[in-house]
Each structure stands twice: as C-alpha cells, then as structure tokens.
Specification:
150 residues; alpha+beta; 2 domains; 9-stranded antiparallel β-sheet; 2 helices; 27% helix
Length: 150
C-alpha cells in the first residue's frame, strides 16, 4: 500500500474526481455527435400571449383564442395553430433563406416579441429566427400560419 499523508490522499481524490468529470464530459460529446440537433421554436413551459401576422393577430382571451380582425376560423382551429407553434421542433440547417411570411410571437414574461420568418419548401417549413434556419419536417405552412393569410 502507498503511504501518503492526509494532504496527499486529498490531492489524489481531487485529481480522480477531475479525471472522472473530464471522461464523462468527453463521452457525452461523443454520444451526441452522431445525432442531429433538434431546436425548439419556443420554450416548452412559457405561455403564448399573442401571435402577430402583419395586420392580423391571434390573441389569448381567457383560456381561448380569437383572431383580430376575424379570419372566419373557429376557436379550435386557432388553438391548434398556437399548439403547433408551442410544439414545433426541427433541425438547424445551413441555408440562406430569402422571402417568406413574418410572424411575431409574444410570450409571457418577455417584453419584446420573437420575430420568425416562415417559408414553405415542399412538405417542410423553413423558419428563420435569430440568424438560424430551422427545418420543420412534414409540417405544412398552414400549421403555423392561418390559411386565410397565405
């Protein structure tokens, strides 16, 4: 057995812990490097207060939703659009996106809205936010933008 002082054993334990932290950190990087990174458009637990589409708005009214000015859609259809925004998740892709529709999502607890640019690409939707382009696979544009505004 190695004879070390109390201070020597403390140093051995400290270096062993640092080595374990380093190994765990590197192994997590190796495991996640093969996966594509998925990005959520909105935080999971933050309520949406309003979505602006130019001169049109989807507004939270109590537990329901309404469109201003009216788009002729039922409250369930408006709630489905808001839920699609809250659950939207895609992969970040390196693409230069020009044109498209603009939507501003207002979240509870944030003083400014979050601007998004939306563009349909085949069966997918490209969403540009903060310089990143996120592809939402197998998502029609009407899932995030009311049909009347296309």
């Amino acid at each position: 057995m190695i004879k070390l002082s109390r201070r020597g054993w403390n140093n051995v334990l400290i270096f062993a812990c640092l080595l374990l932290i380093l190994v765990f950190n590197q192994s997590a990087d190796l495991i996640s490097s093969g996966e594509t990174s998925h990005t959520r458009l909105l935080p999971a637990d933050t309520p949406v207060l309003r979505i602006d589409y130019g001169s049109h708005q989807l507004q939270r009214i109590g537990q329901g939703w309404r469109a201003q000015p009216s788009l002729g859609l039922e409250e369930q259809a408006l709630a489905a659009i808001v839920n699609n925004w809250r659950n939207a998740e895609g992969e970040t892709i390196p693409v230069n996106m020009e044109g498209g529709y603009v939507a501003v999502v207002w979240l509870a607890g944030e003083p400014n809205g979050r601007p998004f640019k939306l563009k349909s690409q085949g069966n997918d939707v490209l969403v540009k936010h903060q310089g990143q382009v996120i592809r939402l696979k197998n998502t029609p544009l009407s899932a995030l933008l009311p049909e009347a505004l296309h």
